[in-house]
Structures are given as structure tokens and as C-alpha cells.
Amino acid sequence: MFEKMDKNFVLHTYGRNYVNFISAKGSVIKDDKGNEFIDLTAGIGVVSVGHSHERVTKAICEQAEKIIHVSNLFLIEPQAKLAKKLVELSGYDMRCFFSNSGAEANEGAIKIARKYGEVEGKPKRYKVITLEHSFHGRTISTLKATGQASMHNYFGPYPDGFVYAKTMDDIEALCDDHTIAVMIELVQGEGGVESQEKAKVQKLEKFLKARDILLIIDEVQTGIYRTGELFASNLYEINPEIITVAKGLGGGVPIGAVMTTLKDIFNPGDHGSTFGGNYLVCAAALEVLDILEDYKNSGGLDEAMLYFEKHLEKLAENYPNEIQKEVGLGFMRGLRIKDSETLTALIKNAFDEKVLVLKAGRNTLRFLPPITITKEELDEGFKRVEIAFSKLS
Ligand SMILES: *Cc1c(COP(=O)(O)O)cnc(C)c1O
Question: Tens of pLDDT along 81-113?
Fold first, then answer.
């Protein structure tokens, strides 16, 4: 009944699976037939502290009872607190702007860079270099920033000034007098869970700093402890001028942020968002950060990541013909599968075994579990993934 309703009234932008989930707790999610799935996707990296975390639910309910929204024309106490918390946890000397999504955070990043290039540049600098296989969002300009030609059908003309580098090694040669920024993911999420080499990123950072070209790190997927530190930028020991974040920040409520060392780049009127950073989402995000900060400091997070790693290694050992290599970092991992047909079969088998997994790129089996997933949930999830592999013909 709801399948028909969805098909009749919702635009078909996703190849939807018509399971009907009705409740969830931690990394277990239930459908309307009573089936229990282990969620190794966290709603594509969003439900960072698991489904319906008691403390997040409480924070949302308490905030909703008091006040949800006033507009950014007024002080929003939890927004100020969240900005302070993000900046302090990151260790970067930055200020934040809050958006509702990752694409919007990246729009903000591009606007910051373009304004810097307009004000500081002589001649005006406006070009933004991104990588092939990158993913930066679905708005017109973040789609153009996304270096996958297959996604640029239909929607032109696009804004000018996006330049694509085939690999990290090609970026330097593409920088010219009009280049204002380089935008990269440290682990490409949608592109195939490919992590960049630390030494290369650090070398690029040095090159860009010497030319006053801004480094934008898109941490929409890698951010909020996904790779083991608050930001992957912390793990890579770099100092970008701009960081964007979204997915895991609100634990499920829609919130994104762009952070920058260019603290005075915007004047009132240059940028804005009606919903961005309202009481409700900031109260949720503050709680998420508190939970994950404690988890990190207790050593629990690092331990869980090692445990997760062991499961992946065991799978790779048991299925050497199907699995080419392990990719990614921390809780953002992938198994490169021998071909896309096998991957499609695997994802279907996994669903039949009631474990949720994702696809990335052409042939990568992707795992983005809740960061607080327990050992028991990992054991059960991987038991089911193992069965999914064993059923490949
Ligand atoms: C998901 C994602 C985005 C887009 O975020 P939305 O919230 O869907 O707009 C941008 N960049 C990266 C790296 C992402 O993973």
C-alpha cells in the first residue's frame, strides 16, 4: 500500500528498496513484518551514535518542548555552544556557519573561497580544483564540483570555474593565477572509499599554502569521528583553511557546517540559511558530540575500530577470489569486489540475510556502521555478511 503511494506521489530519484522500517535501536533496525536487520550503513554515515540513542532523543524532546526555531536574526544559544564545541574539539582556529546538508556546507565553502578570491585576488581568482571520482553534492554548483562526468548530464549550463584533476599528483600542475582553492575528500566516500596518502596530502598543503591557494577538505562523510578523530584532517595532521561537515554531526537530524580560518570573510548579507543551526538540530548535535567525545576519550572508539578491522581482515582471508583489497579508514571501509555483478549479488544476499551494507563506486562493498556499534552487533552483522559471501555461486 505504501509502496504504491510512494511511487505515485514521490519523485523517483532513488532505486528504492521497499522494505518498511518502523523502529530502530543502536545498530538494529526493524521492519513492519518483525524482521530485525543489522545496520552497517548508519543511513549512509548519518546515525553516528546509533538509532534512537537515549541521550539524543532526550535532548531533542527537551529542546522541542522549549523552543525550536527563531531565525538567525537572533542569538541561538545551542548554536553558539555547538560552534565553540566543534572549534575546540577540532583544535583549529576557525568560525562556523551552519547549514542543513552537506551540499549546502560545500556551497558555503565555495562561496567563502570565491569571496576570498574576489577581495584578495589581483587578478580575481575563482577556480576551484577537485578530483575525478569525487562527490560534493547535488546542487548545481556542488554537482559541477563533483568530478564525475556521468553526473553532469541534463542540468547545464553550470557555473564556470571548476577544474578536475585525475589524481592528487595532477593538482599542482593545474594551479594557475586564477586558482583560489582545491577541494578534496581525504577518503572518497561515494567514489569508492579510496583514502589519500598522508604524505601526498601534506605535500599538497605545503604547495598551496606557499601560493595562498585555499585547501578545502570535504569532511561531510569523513568528519565526526568516522575515521577515528573528530576530523580526518586531524588524522592527516593538516591545517586546511576550510572544512565542511554534515552527515554524522546531528545523529540523524539535518545539519551541516562550514568552518573556516577566514573568520571575517563574510559580512551580514553575504550568506545565510533560514533553518540552518536552529535550536532543535544544534541541541541534537551537541549531544552527539558529547557522546562521541566521551567514547573517544575512554579508548572505546579505537578499540571498536580495531575489532571492526579484524572482521574485515577475516572476510578478506576467507574470500580471496571475491575480495581484491580492503580500502578506507576507521569506520569508513570498503572491500573491493572482483566485479560489479558479484557486488550486486552480494548486496542482495546481505539484504536477504538481514544485514544492511552499501555500494560505492563501481565495485566496492561499503561499510559505514554507527560509530558506537557494539562488538555483539558487529559479530552478528559480520556473521550475516559471511553467509552472504558463502551464498555467491
Ligand atoms: C554525502 C556527501 C555530500 C552531500 O551531502 P548532502 O547532505 O547529501 O547534501 C557531500 N560530500 C560528501 C563527501 C558526501 O559524502
Answer: 999 999 999 999 999 999 999 999 999 999 999
Q: Where are the domains of the chain?
A: 2-52+299-390, 55-297
Burial degree of 171 (CB within 10 A; 0-12, 13-18, 19+) = buried
Distance 137 CA to ligand 1 centre (A): 5
User: In percent, how much of the chain has pLDDT > 90?
Assistant: 98
How far does residue 189's CA lie from ligand 1's centre (Å)? Answer: 9
Q: What is the pLDDT of residue 209?
A: 98
Residue of 128, 142, 186, 247 to mutate, ligand 1, most atoms within 8 A of C-beta: 247
- Which numeric CATH code is attached to 2-52+299-390? 3.90.1150.10
Asked whether the CA dihedral 90, 296, 224, 304 is positive or negative, the reply is positive
Examine domains 2-52+299-390 and 55-297 and report if their fold is the same: no
Backbone CA torsion sign across 252, 254, 258, 263: negative
Q: State whether CATH 3.40.640.10 applies to domain 55-297.
A: yes
